[in-house]
Structure formats: C-alpha cells, structure tokens
Amino acid sequence: MAKVAMCAGHGGSGSTPGKRSPAGEYEWNFNDAVVRAAIAKLKANGVEVLRTDDASGKTDIGLTARTNKANAWGADVYVSCHHNALGTSWLNYEIGIETFTQNGSHPQAEILARCIHPKYVKAMGLKDRGMKKSNLAITRQTKMPAVLTEGGFMDSRIDIKSMRDNAKLKAQGEAIADGIMEFLNVKNTNSAPKVSKPSSGKTGSKQITKPKSILSVDGKWGNSTTQALQEALNTPVDGVISKQPKNAVTQALYSTTVQFGNGSSNVIVALQKKVGVKADGKLGPATIKALQKYLGTPQDGVLSRPSMVVEEMQRRLNAGTF
C-alpha cells in the first residue's frame, strides 16, 4: 500500500505568530481545509496517510518533529500544504501559486511537483508562478520525495477570494491528491468522499456537527448563518434568533446595545459559554471581544469590521471547527 505523509503548514488558533491575512485569517485554516480534502480522497483510493501536524491547529508542531515522524514511518512521499504572503497589507493584484522542491537536483521530487502543480493551479484558478527550488526544512530533512505547495497569497485581494471559497479549497486538496496518485501509480477512482471533521477544540468534548448546507462566506449574519450556529451549539433550530425580527442578528452586530428579550437568547447564551464569557444572553462588547479572540480576528471589543468576524465564523461553521 502506498504511504503518503502530509501536513498543513504552521498552526492555528494563535499558535503561530503572524502567518495570517491582513484581515486576521490564519493561514493554517486554509491549509487544513486543503489537507483534509486531500487525505479524504487519498484514503478513498486505498492510500495510507500520515498527518504530521496537529489536526486541531492548537499547537504548531516543529518541522523536525514532522519530518522525523514521516521518515520513521517510511512514507513514500511528503507534501506540505501552505498559502503565501508578501507582507501584512492588502495588494490589489493577483499573485498566484508556486510549488517548491529542495535546492539542488532531486529528480523524484521534481517529478512529484510536476504531477501536482498544474492540477491545483487549475483547481484554484489563479496565476501560475511555476515550480521553484528553495532550502526548506520540510524538503531538506525528508528521506522521501517532498514538495511544499503554496496555494495563493493571503495578502492579494484577488487570490484571497479563491482561498475564501470552500469549494476551491476542497478542489485544491483533491487536485493535490490526484497528483500524488499519478506519481505513485495509484489507480484513481475519482471518488469524492466527505471531508473528515476536526474536533471542537476542547479535549474530551464531542465532535461538532457540520452544517447540513455550505454557507456563503459573505460576512452577513442572516438566517442561514444563525441556523448553522444553532446547529453547531445544539440550540433550538428555527433559522432566526427566537421570535426577534428577521434582521435582529444583523442589527445586533452593528449595535452592541441591543439586548434580546426573554426566550430569545438561547443561542447567544450558548455562544457566550463557547467563548468563555458571562452567559447573560446579551450580545455586548465583552461577548464580541471574546468572539474576536476565539476566531483569531482583530480584538477591539466592538464590531468595527463586523464582516471580518462573521466571515471567519462562517468558515469555521462550514469546516465544523466552530
């Protein structure tokens, strides 16, 4: 049986300094979505997979620990999935995708890169920056052919649109899996399995159920987002926050003075318990600041940029990691 080692670059939930978009989105969250999709397809086609990073994102496993694990396991190939950035400010142009192998001559790794690279460039629909060489720990310390993928630039206003598209991240992961199977001569059945769900982030807690439908990552906290939040937090699901007007949640996002009446605060109480603040059912500054911290978005105690917070929440709900 073919053996593939993979990792999502870095870590999430504040475990890695930097490594995020100008909007505060953690690179690991994008990387993780890609790796999960790749692993699901590889396993569906009979490939044995070892994931060497922390699949919860709570810790950033050292690079040597990752490569040691893959070497000891005897992986046939190693693929580390990343997304790039030039800086911390938005750039108004497309930058694109590149794939790295180790400096020098590594023919098998270069063949692996040629199998993978064009497939995930097409899946993401971004500019092709080509296959490159660099001196990277992942590609240097592994005993098997290894590549590092960079699926777009987080500080490009063009690239980030594809990275915020869950369908494209899934397609990227499956394209990488296709390339790996081509390299290993594994029969590809083109199956599209469901992606495995990460844990809720709390030791011993049950796994959160993924929403029945994929939310649009649009920064609007409407009925569909509310229903997904209710499902994730195990509160009554009615598509709105109890009997409040249809746009009550949107109003609350823009005004931290809104207080919900009796019987309408179940989901807010559950949300407060989730982020660790006083469960009073009021979506006030303390709750907003705690939510911003939980999601890894800029923490100012008010929703000065509400769409940033809601977009990250929608991504987490889609991935089952909220």
Write a concise keyword list for the protein shown above.
322 residues, alpha/beta, Aminopeptidase, six-stranded mixed sheet, 12% strand
What does this molecule look like?
There is one protein chain. This protein has 322 residues and is of the alpha/beta class. It folds into 2 domains: 3-184, Aminopeptidase; 223-319, no CATH class. Helices cover 40% and strands 12% of the residues. It contains 11 helices and 6 strands. It has helices at 27-44, 63-73, 107-124, 137-141, 159-163, 166-184, 223-232, 248-254, 266-275, 285-295, 306-319; strands at 3-8, 48-51, 77-84, 97-102, 128-134, 146-153. It has a 6-stranded mixed β-sheet with strand order 2-1-3-6-4-5, with helices on both faces. Strand 1 (3-8), helix 1 and strand 2 form a beta-alpha-beta unit. The radius of gyration is 20 Å and the shape is elongated. It starts with a strand and ends with a helix.
CATH superfamily caption of the largest domain: Zn-dependent exopeptidases
DSSP, total strands: 6
Distance between the termini: 35 Å
Supply the helix-strand structural class: alpha/beta
Second rung of CATH, namely the architecture of the largest domain? 3-Layer(aba) Sandwich
Shape: elongated
Gyration radius from CA atoms, angstroms: 20 Å
- How do the strands of the widest beta sheet line up side by side? 2-1-3-6-4-5
The main sheet comes to: 6 strands, mixed
> Which strand-content bin applies to the residues?
5-15%
Unreliable runs: 197-212, 242-250, 254-264
Mean pLDDT equals 82
The CATH class of the largest domain is Alpha Beta
The portion of residues assigned to helices is 25-40%
**CATH-defined fold name of the largest domain:** Aminopeptidase
Number of helices: 11
